[in-house]
Amino acid sequence: MPELVQRTMVRAPVEEVFDVALDLDVERVAGRRYRVRAVEGAGRTSGRIGLGEQVRWRLRLLGVVPVAHTSRIVELERPGRFVDEMTAGAFADFRHEHLFETEGPGMTIMTDRMVWRSPAGALGRVADALYVRRTLRRLLADRNSEIVRRFS
After folding, report:
1. Which of 6, 9, 53, 56: disulfide with 42, CB 3.0–4.6 Å?
2. SS3 assignment, position 30
3. More confident position, 119 or 99
4. How far apart, in whole angstroms, are the C-alpha atoms of residue 128 and residue 115?
């Protein structure tokens, strides 16, 4: 399965960064490029998500292709780690692990680890190489930039 790992330094205490990372409104603000929004029908649409809760996201790829992705928080260990997994969506399988480590006084390292499996066999692997990895990297970079911005 493809894997994407990204580390981000945030100038804030680990507990605060952890809480902001669970705030669905961060995704809404950060997801402007792909018009990401939480929608009714699967769980939370705003505020801080918790263990066992889920959210349904809608976004637009290539500016026009609507995509839905529903995920659930399946593990949560404050303030060090939480994991969300896709329960419905475009992937055959999708898991996003969020790790938080103190890096000196008032500094946090966020590490995001995404693994996924695209549908459609060889065609899905081609899509991963040409588009999916780059799109996930951009979504993640936009999200993490918004988290950093909130502490600036």
Report:
1. 56
2. helix
3. 99
4. 11
CB burial of residue 122 (10 Å; 0-12, 13-18, 19+):
exposed
Please give the model's pTM, rounded to 2 decimal places.
0.92
Kind and range of the H or E element at 57?
Answer: strand 54-61
C-alpha–C-alpha distance, residues 108 and 111, integer Å: 10
* Alpha helices, H only, 11-68: 14-21, 24-30
Yes or no: say if 106 and 132 are a contact pair by the CB < 8 Å rule: no
Strands (E), 90-140: 93-102, 108-117
List CB contacts of 116: < 8 A, sequence separation 6 or more.
Answer: 1, 2, 91, 92, 93, 94, 95, 128, 132, 136
pLDDT for 8 beyond 80 = yes
Residue 36: pLDDT band (50, 70, 90) is confident
Number of CB atoms found within 10 A of residue 40's CB: 8
96's tokens = 């996003």
